[in-house]
Specification:
- 44% of the residues lie in helices and 16% in strands.
- It has 359 residues and is α/β, with parallel strands linked by helices.
- The strands form three sheets. Strands 3-2-1-4-5-6-10 form a seven-stranded parallel sheet, with helices on both faces. Strands 7-9-11 form a three-stranded mixed sheet. Strands 8-12 form a two-stranded parallel ribbon.
Length: 359
């Protein structure tokens, strides 16, 4: 077994941030298996071009032969599994893709990993880890006064996306309890930061505000999310991978509950501050309430006290400061933005937001 980790979905938003932070902090070699779908962008990792510690392999986690050959060739000491379809609206429009990637893909990855792990020496088996990255959405929705999700909160997924991730969580748990595969699971709250594909709320609003376009907000805008800066998330994953107890689940949150409309208005103010004012006045005037998504969960909140108690991790970034950094990053990286705003992306925005503006 070599000092190598295999990362799935490492060209996506969280995965690419993790690889950059991993190599920056640990220096260990990374093999990145990514299908490079619409949200996977190898340019996120262009700073590693020519670095012998990094290798990108384009491929599907559902391809058992490919996964098996990569494990045999690179002999990783850990797998960090990010690869997933992750947008709720897309899961409502095309749930089959979520079942294929999030459920079938995770099954194939676990099954091939078990085959690989079972042939390792006893010492290497003890060192190996499979870290499955999941979401707080598996827990369902909270009322305004309900306690935050903990690791013992019953699963109650409400969207095809959340249901597919719940299924993958259960598979990961089963492979540990049935065969002893050294699995760790993390369930995180909403991430934000550099390299996030602009279908998600924060980058979508930043870019629309910059261009003076309507800022679509679902329903009454009072849905609550707990926001986690992606660099804090990456630090938590490293801590769980290095020191987490095998078989355990760790919730990762940012201690930053905000309503969607609060987030949108704060972005408007930051863009107004960093870029010239629009002729139409403050960018808050661009807020447009649109028809709510089906089954829209009202509130998510994460109790990350287990992670703090056992591993000493806490989020380091206050939301307002992290959001300021994020807005600045998007404004300063126009070439990256242009590279991801393809025809497919524009078609998606038209389907999911423009057609809702008539209400």
């Amino acid at each position: 077994m070599r000092d190598t980790i295999l990362v799935t979905g490492g060209a996506g938003f969280i995965g690419s941030n993790f690889i950059l932070s991993w190599i920056g902090a640990a220096g260990a070699r990374v093999v990145n298996l990514d299908l490079l779908t619409y949200a996977g962008n190898p340019g996120n990792l262009s700073s590693l071009d020519g670095d012998s510690r990094y290798q990108l392999v384009r491929g599907d986690i559902s391809n058992a032969d490919l996964v098996s050959s990569l494990l045999r060739e690179h002999q990783p000491r850990a797998i960090v599994h990010f690869a997933a379809e992750s947008h709720v609206d897309r899961s409502i429009a095309s749930p089959g893709a979520f079942i294929r990637t999030n459920v079938q893909g995770t099954f194939v990855l676990l099954d091939q990993t078990l085959s690989y792990w079972s042939k390792l020496s006893e010492a290497d088996q003890a060192m190996f880890r499979f870290l499955h990255v999941s979401t707080d959405e598996v827990y369902g929705s909270l009322g305004p006064d309900d306690p935050a999700f903990s690791e013992t909160t019953p699963y109650s997924p409400n969207s095809p996306y959340a249901a597919s991730k719940a299924a993958s969580d259960h598979l990961a748990r089963a492979y540990h309890h049935t065969w002893g595969l050294p699995v760790l699971t993390t369930n995180c709250s909403n991430n934000y930061g550099p390299f996030q594909f602009p279908e998600k709320l924060i980058p979508l609003v930043i870019l629309n505000a910059l261009e003076g376009k309507a800022l679509p907000v679902y329903g009454d805008g009072k849905n609550v999310r707990d926001w986690l800066f992606v660099e804090d998330h990456c630090a938590a994953i490293r801590a769980v991978l290095e020191r987490g107890r095998v078989g355990e689940t760790y919730n990762i949150g940012g201690n930053s509950e905000r309503t969607n409309i609060e987030v949108v208005k704060l972005i408007c103010d930051l863009v107004d501050e960093m870029r010239p004012a629009l002729p139409s006045g403050p960018r808050r005037n661009l807020v447009t309430f649109v028809k709510d998504r089906p089954g829209h969960d009202r509130r998510y909140a994460i109790d990350a006290s287990k992670l703090e108690r056992e591993l000493g991790w806490q989020p380091g970034e206050r939301f307002e400061n992290g959001l300021r950094k994020t807005v600045r990053w998007y404004l300063d990286h126009s070439s990256w933005v242009e590279s991801v705003q393809t025809g497919a992306y524009l078609e998606w925005i038209a389907q999911n937001y423009t057609e809702r503006l008539a209400i």
